[in-house]
């Protein structure tokens, strides 16, 4: 019998080499590589908007549609979409980018956050290859990740950066994370480049790309010199940058010479957090010290628990109607219609927490598909 995996990762350990979670979590990508995470309907026909009219969807159609599940890059920490990573110059952003890239490529937990392994592209546009070589060898020795790629030059967005990134993703189907270090190196140059509309537009372009291909774009940026009580007001530029992004990470120190930094995290898909981290100057990696707030843990869902018990080691796949599935789940006092809609709503949780893929195919008769992609121990 399989068991449930924790909804969120604990963050109470100290250091990158601290005790890891007791439960085994697969590091492999479990989402279908052909499914994009742009949350567009997978089986919802366009019923309005013909001839230029407003495209709408009814509440019934909304609930009856299965949307592609969103899977995290780092559970409880970083998800698909476009995020800003902001800090003052020389605060240690590039060291953390190298650390994050290596952990995702290798599938190693970051502190105590489980990582979903995948290919990583790091655009280190303010570095050269010799500096990258020296930095990474100090951080991780000479053990290589074959699926971690670097570039020190790239086109700007108006010159065709999206085409370059698209070519990389087509060549590396399991791409999970693309780091752009820094935003200034890829943004268009113009007289109004610091206007709200311009800032909003550039992040919107990046977000459109990340949503289309179901990857995470992490964009490094600088803080402004003026201090603020709200750390997110310190992002250089206008509020258009944060307004268009899926979230942001702000790394800041009380004094530049401090080894300790605070990382504030805010976003649409991950919980707001404030982490205290410490820089190990000998190994040049960031180690976890404490979290200001513990991650909220979602309570168990009886329906998902029942499906997890139903897909035992002897039967890893099942296909049938909602009515037939209810016969396999005798404790679920639901109608077939309600069962399908509830599964449509929680399909991301079913995949991320239990490793079970779900789909609801239209046809002569709606068929539910359940397939275990991860074996939990």
- DSSP helix fraction: 25-40%
As a whole number of angstroms, the C-alpha radius of gyration is 22 Å
Count of distinct strands: 14
Largest sheet: 9 strands, mixed
What is the fold named in CATH at topology level of the domain at 77-291?
Rossmann fold
Please, what is the average pLDDT? 82
Broad structural category = alpha/beta
Q: Class of the domain at 77-291, according to the CATH hierarchy? A: Alpha Beta
CATH superfamily name of the domain at 77-291? P-loop containing nucleotide triphosphate hydrolases
Rough shape? Answer: globular
Q: How far is it from the N-terminal to the C-terminal residue, by CA?
A: 9 Å
Spell the H/E element sequence: HEEEHEHEHEHEHEEEEHEHHHEE
Beta-strand level of the residues, as a percent range? 15-25%
Model regions low in confidence, pLDDT < 50 over at least 5 residues? 1-46
Number of helices: 10
Give the strand order of the largest sheet, numbering strands 1, 2, ... along the chain. 5-4-6-7-3-8-9-10-11
Reported CATH architecture of the domain at 77-291? 3-Layer(aba) Sandwich
Describe this structure in words.
With 377 residues, the chain is α/β, with parallel strands linked by helices. The chain has a domain of 215 residues: Rossmann fold (3-Layer(aba) Sandwich), CATH 3.40.50.300. Helix content is 26%, strand content 21%. The protein has ten helices and 14 strands. A nine-stranded mixed beta sheet has the order 5-4-6-7-3-8-9-10-11. Strands 12-14-13 form a three-stranded antiparallel beta sheet. The longest helix has 18 residues. The protein is globular and about 65 Å long. The N terminus is likely disordered.
């Amino acid at each position: 019998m399989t068991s449930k995996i924790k909804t969120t990762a604990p963050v109470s350990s100290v250091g990158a080499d601290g005790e890891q979670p007791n439960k085994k979590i697969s590091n492999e990508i479990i989402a279908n590589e052909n499914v994009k995470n742009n949350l567009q309907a997978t089986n919802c026909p366009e019923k309005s908007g013909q001839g230029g009219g407003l495209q709408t969807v009814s509440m019934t159609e909304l609930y009856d549609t299965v949307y592609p599940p969103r899977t995290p890059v780092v559970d409880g920490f970083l998800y698909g979409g476009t995020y800003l990573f902001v800090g003052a110059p020389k605060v240690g952003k590039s060291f953390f980018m190298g650390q994050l890239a290596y952990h995702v490529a290798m599938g190693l937990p970051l502190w105590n956050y489980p990582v979903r392994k995948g290919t990583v592209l790091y655009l280190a546009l303010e570095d050269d290859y010799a500096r990258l070589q020296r930095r990474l060898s100090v951080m991780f020795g000479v053990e290589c990740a074959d699926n971690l790629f670097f570039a020190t030059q790239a086109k700007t967005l108006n010159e065709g950066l999206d085409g370059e990134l698209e070519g990389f993703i087509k060549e590396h189907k399991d791409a999970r994370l693309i780091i752009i270090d820094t935003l200034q190196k890829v943004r268009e140059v113009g007289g109004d480049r610091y206007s709200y509309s311009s800032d909003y537009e550039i992040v919107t372009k990046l977000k459109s790309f990340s949503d289309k291909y179901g990857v995470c774009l992490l964009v490094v940026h600088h803080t402004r010199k003026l201090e603020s009580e709200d750390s997110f007001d310190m992002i250089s530029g206008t509020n258009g940058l944060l307004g268009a992004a899926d979230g942001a990470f702000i790394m800041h120190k009380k004094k530049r010479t401090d080894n300790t930094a605070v990382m504030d995290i805010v976003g649409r898909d991950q919980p707001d957090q404030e982490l205290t981290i410490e820089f190990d100057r000998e190994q040049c990696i960031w180690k976890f010290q404490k979290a200001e707030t513990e991650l909220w843990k979602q309570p168990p869902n009886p329906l998902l628990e029942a499906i997890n018990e139903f897909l035992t080691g002897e039967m890893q796949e099942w296909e049938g109607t909602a009515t037939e599935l209810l016969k396999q789940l005798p404790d679920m006092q639901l109608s077939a219609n309600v069962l399908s809609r509830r599964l449509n709503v929680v399909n991301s949780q079913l995949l991320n927490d239990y490793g079970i893929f779900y789909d609801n195919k239209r046809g002569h008769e709606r068929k539910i598909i359940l397939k275990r992609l991860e074996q939990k121990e």
